[in-house]
Write a structure and sequence with these properties.
Chain lengths: 380, 384
């Protein structure tokens, strides 16, 4: 009603992360679904009296929607509160980096104590933590693992690795699955170095999903946005998050993910300086040099292009951390200027084909099914 | 060449489209089958050509801005594959198969048409067997893949990402939408393709266009690629979104009418395809790459109606309960009242007041505001 004085809509956003409290985008639509306002974080705005929907993008990548009724000359409050994730239960079993592979017909009970004959000790068999496992952790490289629950392993970095840390699982119905782990050796304490591998048993075969530890809040938000596809709505968050992760939070693996995503969407712009630092400062992380090679590929200076090619060839000798890092590597090798180092590039393609043929392309971090190349092909 | 419409090509901005669908692979099952095909394990598909024809039909049946100026369609169906009748009726002499030569010819003409005006819009949809599939690219095999006359193994293939990159040049159609709908090979087969060369591509030019997202849809296996006898899961999801499920209301910064934008497609397509694939016990992903900016893929003249379903709990309370829906916005349509449960109807999108009137001894719940918007609205009302 045009003659009525406007009312005020006050949007309150609370997140455990100060950065996210001020960055999470929202939009306001009127009763006919027309966008009337946009904002980030906690904001106030004047609106004509009426009904409005407010949709906020949460740090998990999901959307929260509220309906507000704005009255003339009055203030209406809408609050969005992100809860701090509850701490997981204490680890059931802390595993050493290397484990003996159980026999194929052996049932392993996590947390069980075995007698000399391999039988579970009776009183331990009563423990509720015991259960048959269809996902067995067989090997860990570059991190320390703890099995938190039947559906979660947690991995922490305890030293600067020389290659991307990995965990190898035996997964029923799939075979041997190798997961690249986005641990952060630069983290100030254990949780800021950690990542988790979650087991989803709601499908025909167990599926493994890698996520950042919730205490790596900005990194988790990045992962959430990628999972839900809210890429465009969160472009500002993506850009700022990538910068923050590198400069302030010292989380180069998460920063690399942000940069890979921005590059894939054509939005990396000119971040050559920090991509260069990422490439040279963390030599165990090949995704950084891959990004640098991508930026140098189209440099007008032939010496820079040559440098980019050298960086590309070196980086593609190693396993990437992210699935998108592998995608970028493959496309750069194929599409580099046709006359340059063709034999070397195609050798690298051959090398990477061991990953590309077996990659689970929906996974955030590079996850490969090692048995997928057995004769007869399909491990699933 | 199979050009279905040329209305004002070259004179005013228009939408130019190239649609390719390959179900039939000559080398797979014809008497002159190539010795390559057993090595590469390629079999004909059941509905890539049909899927492409469905997308082409949508282009023909809907209004576009700018208007559709040209539509090039190359289809290689298998025997008995049902091509959309609108497209089938327009194909000259039964249409042109999607061979390397035909695709190369049409691609060149398509690019030339797109270059006629930077205000043009380009739309590309390609479906078939995919190799070298990753989050950023795809090579789709054409119907004459495996032809022993080809010099290189991938001569009978199109590098979608390479062509997409080649069209990203100053002066080309400023707004482009690319869709690659491909079926992933078994790992033992996929590995053989990594070093291969010869796929049709375009040279990269200078500068770039305003917006050019490339959606790469890749399924695990042929039976996940398409519902047998139907259309591919990606095609279903894409048309579901474009026909209304992905519609969003007007936004003065983006579009002054109801529309489907790139933002929504990115959000919806992967989730929808995953849902459809998992219902078949399969896996499928949709990734987006390219020059990804917010752009309008489709506009609606009128807001699309939304499917509404309101359920009552417990169901046996139905004789004593009536429902009502009253729009709070100007475009919401007349109030609705009902006594039959569940309530199902189509209503214009908007915020409504959902009310419930009960007879004793049932307690009447407070009315509530609900946001009815695409893709659909479902709510349970509980009375006690």
């Amino acid at each position: 009603m045009p003659d009525e004085a406007p009312g005020t809509l006050r949007v309150h956003v609370e997140s455990p992360s100060m950065f996210l409290s001020g960055s999470l985008p929202f939009e306001v639509r009127d009763a006919d679904q027309r966008v009337v306002a946009r904002g980030h974080g906690s904001t106030s705005m004047d609106l004509d009296p009426g009904c409005y929907s407010v949709s906020l993008l949460l740090s998990t990548g999901e959307r929260a929607d509220r309906i507000a009724s704005v009255a003339s000359a009055e203030a209406t409050d809408i609050a969005f509160r992100e809860a701090v994730e509850a701490e997981p239960p204490p680890a059931l079993l802390v595993l050493p980096p290397r484990l003996a592979v159980p026999a194929a017909d052996e049932t392993v009970y996590a947390g069980a104590e075995m007698d000399a004959g391999g039988e579970a000790v009776d009183e331990v068999a009563e423990e509720p933590a015991l259960r048959p496992v269809d996902v067995l952790l067989q090997d860990v490289h570059g991190a320390v693992a703890s099995e938190v629950s039947a559906t979660m392993w947690e991995f922490v970095a305890d030293y600067e690795p020389d290659t991307v840390p990995t965990a190898t699982f035996q997964v029923a119905g799939r075979g041997q699955v190798v997961v690249s782990l986005p641990v952060n050796p630069q983290g100030d304490f254990a949780e800021l170095t950690a990542c988790r591998v979650l087991v989803d048993r709601t499908h025909d075969q167990p599926m493994l999903t890698t996520v950042f530890h919730p205490r790596r809040q900005v990194a988790s938000a990045l992962g959430g946005v990628l999972r839900t596809g809210e890429l465009m709505s969160s472009m500002v968050v993506l850009r700022e998050a990538a910068d923050l992760l590198f400069h302030k939070y010292r989380d180069p693996p998460a920063a690399a993910l942000g940069a890979l995503t921005l590059h894939r969407l054509g939005r990396l712009d000119d971040r050559r300086h920090w991509v260069q630092n990422l490439a040279h400062g963390f030599t165990w992380l090949p995704d950084g040099p891959l990004l640098l090679a991508a930026l140098l590929r189209d440099d007008p200076d032939p010496r820079e292009r040559e440098r980019g090619l050298a960086v590309l060839l070196e980086a593609t000798a190693r396993r990437p951390l992210y699935t998108d890092g592998l995608s970028l590597a493959l496309e750069l090798l194929r599409r580099w200027h046709p006359t340059e180092a063709k034999d070397e590039r195609y050798d690298r393609l051959e090398h990477l084909s061991a990953y590309s043929a077996t990659a689970m392309w929906d996974a955030l971090t590079l996850t490969t099914v090692e048995d997928a190349l057995t004769p007869g092909g399909d491990a699933r | 060449m199979a050009v279905l419409r040329v209305s004002h090509e070259g004179s005013v901005p228009g939408t130019h489209a190239l649609v390719i669908g390959v179900s039939h692979y000559r080398s797979a099952d014809t008497p002159d089958a190539s010795p390559r095909s057993p090595i590469f394990g390629i079999r004909s598909l059941s509905s890539a050509a049909r899927s492409a024809s469905e997308f082409a039909a949508w282009l023909l049946e809907e209004e576009h801005q700018p208007p559709l100026a040209s539509l090039r369609v190359l289809l290689s169906p298998v025997d008995g594959e049902q091509i959309h009748p609108t497209v089938q009726a327009l194909l000259p002499d039964g249409g042109a198969p999607a061979t390397r030569q035909a695709v190369e010819q049409d691609l060149g003409a398509f690019r030339q048409a797109c270059r006629s005006d930077p205000e043009n819009t380009a739309v590309v949809y390609i479906a078939g067997h995919g190799v070298q599939l990753n989050k950023r690219g795809a090579i789709v095999l054409l119907s004459d893949f495996g032809d022993p006359a080809h010099v290189n193994e991938l001569t009978g293939a199109i590098d979608v990402a390479g062509c997409h990159a080649g069209m990203n040049e100053a002066g080309n159609a400023g707004q482009q939408f690319w869709f690659a709908d491909a079926c992933r090979q078994l790992p033992s087969v996929a590995r053989k393709f990594e070093r291969l060369e010869g796929a049709l591509t375009l040279s990269e030019g200078n500068g770039q266009v305003r917006s050019s997202p490339l959606f790469v849809a890749s399924s695990t296996r042929e039976n996940a690629f398409a519902e047998i006898g139907g259309t591919s899961l990606f095609c279903q999801a894409l048309l579901w979104a474009l026909r209304g499920a992905g519609a969003e209301g007007p936004d003065r910064e983006v579009c002054d009418s109801w529309h489907v934008g790139v933002t929504t497609l990115i959000r919806l397509l992967d989730a929808r395809v995953k849902k459809l694939a998992r219902a078949h016990g399969e896996e499928q992903t949709v990734d987006v790459t390219g020059r990804v900016k917010d752009a309008i893929v489709h506009r609606f003249r009128h807001p699309p109606d939304v499917t509404v379903e309101v359920l009552l709990r417990p169901e046996d309370a139905a004789p004593k309960v009536k429902g009502s829906l009253v729009a709070r916005g100007a475009g919401g349509g007349p109030p609705k009242e009902w006594a039959e449960w569940p309530f199902r109807d189509l209503v214009p999108p908007g915020i409504y007041e959902l009310g419930v009137a009960t007879q004793p001894p049932l307690q009447e719940p407070d009315p509530e505001f609900v946001n009815i918007k695409p893709p659909g609205f479902e709510q349970e009302i509980e009375v006690s």
